[in-house]
Amino acid sequence: MGTSVQVKPLCGVYSENPLSYLVSVDGFNFLIDCGWNDHFDPSLLQPLSRVASTIDAVLLSHPDTLHLGALPYAMKQLGLSAPIYSTEPVHRLGLLTMYDHYLSRKQVSEFDLFTLDDVDSAFQNVTRLTYSQNHHLSGKGEGIVIAPHVAGHLLGGTLWKITKDGEDVIYAVDFNHRKERHLNGTVLESFVRPAVLITDAYNALNNQPSRRQRDQEFLDAILKTLRADGNVLLPVDTAGRVLELILILEQYWAQHHLTYPIFFLTYVASSTIDYVKSFLEFMSDSIAKSFEHTRDNAFLLKHTTLLINNNELENIPDGPKIVLASMASLEAAFSHDIFVEWAPDVKNLVLFTERGQFGTLARMLQADPPPKAVKVTMSKRVPLVGDELAAYEEERNRIKKEEAIKATLIKEEESKPSHGSDPNVGDPMVIDASSTHALSNVAGQQSGTYRDMLIDGFVPPSSSVAPMFPFYENSFEWDDFGEVINPDDYIIAEEDMDQGAMQVGGDLNGKLDEGSASLILDTTPSKVVSNELTVQVKCSLVYMDFEGRSDGRSIKSILAHVAPLKLVLVHGSAEATEHLKLHCLKHVCPHVYAPQIEETIDVTSDLCAYKVQLSEKLMSNVLLKKLGDYEIAWVDAEVGKTESDMLSLLPLSTPAPPHKSVFVGDIKMADFKQFLASKGVQVEFAGGALRCGEYVTLRKVGDASQKGGCAGIQQIIIEGPLSEEYYKIREYLYSQFYSL
Length: 740
Known about the structure:
By secondary structure, the chain is an alpha/beta fold. The chain is about 30% helix and about 20% strand. Belongs to the metallo-beta-lactamase superfamily. RNA-metabolizing metallo-beta-lactamase-like family. CPSF2/YSH1 subfamily.
């Protein structure tokens, strides 16, 4: 049998709920994503609570609440204590996202599911990896290798590859094959025939217009509103898709010299942009090349003002403006308050760039037709005054006194020497009052509880300890060089230093956003005051898909190319999941699964894998050729056994039969076209073929995949008369492969 693999969804199947899945590889339990929704509904985490203590490692794929929102709560309340792995942007931007959500919730409710300390503690345990970095697990996970790869969608977004004994388990949700302004497309298509592929059906029923058309419609809608003297609200996430929107607006404003003000409003806006500036290696090639040549950072914003407080926005002079404000769901935070203020004005526009989560105000407003009025709850935190303040102070003083008394008692208990279970036996200088009469003939009558030290003759002590002043033996260990110490006790961990420099809203210099810091450091007694009101929705409501996910047509094409041996579908509406399942059964592979919540499915590979040893005699005659990160060679050998009864490949006892040359590698015609052009060959695409020079033509024939998921055979055919040009093109073509 192959590597044992089981998948158990904990949340996010047959629905658009947050993502959380338990994947077991040979008994090693991975929790892949740990998401929560904007309602922070604890009932969604009940399946996770039942397995949290058994989890061996956590893998995070994207820096938003749907993928990591439950992490602080799970580590504080559910017993999750496993090491966590992510890319650097997922770690940093995920931390800021949780800060923003906590501060937003704290302003409108007595939010107590987790604190900022819980957020810090959770993200302190994250091991950060770079793209394509292989990380070898140890201990229980010995032999398992994990590696993050580019997913697109969000900055730092990850496809996880888990490898054991040569078999790959790929986790690929929320990926985007399109190259965007700040992100490269996914590398999912580079994986072919993995043992298991876990992917989502979220966009299986959606098709998208071209990027150019979508961007133009987006800008036209905004400019139409601004020129009519209206305001534009874009409800956005904290540090995800908002980055692409900011770049679109920045570039268009610079090209057309527009002066309408743009504001980015979250509790951690300035910190978000500060960190993003340092993540160029995770961004698109165009941004990286631009920085290399001009040292111009794309996120040195020239037209966007960063705000961290609603008061700053209120101080802006009246006039048309664009505000990108969190949260995208409109459930709380700045976007909620701005919507309530701007919705009654027919000149204004609320532009949604992602689908709202179920049960949220944003989802309600995206209905067709949208509601004409909505009921909302307006909440704000106000300082306590009068009798409420007096009662609060009295209660706080009472609690302080109780804590002081408790601390004193604990200190006294700790100061008493302990030599046994009997507290009076603990100190040889103290005796039980009940035994005083037994000692009266020896030491005379005692008025206290302390024994007379002037004893006439020998009297055995009442305890096993001889009467003496308390003495405690030093338990420190010593060696030839002195006291043995633990160096870790004197080293400030890198994570601690990072957290020290990065408190709430902290920028790269360790400074706090003033608005965020004031919320944390403000100890003024306060309460939350709420009132319900009905908002007349007269403004324009528009939805445009800027989610950064591949659409249904592209997903089907990519899955056919990857052709996994077994496919697991998660995260998507019931309709989308069933639609993609039926398609994949027909066109991708015969083993397609769509499990329910807490349903464990066994997707162990049907392949039989054997470990063999390469003998020294065999390898001494093998010529290895480097291919990327690997070395390859053609080997003719026979199977034998070593002295330890392990299978081994040995040199042939008879001469090896001849074999045809094998070309190893893959080539894209577009890349080969650029290669030929660099060699001075005139080349162009014509009729699906590549015309090289005057007489030679190259074409690819055969399908990338065939029905049932079997890998198809592709051939490159070179056509033309035998000539110097023909042989030169053929030599260039051969140079793109490795010949064995």
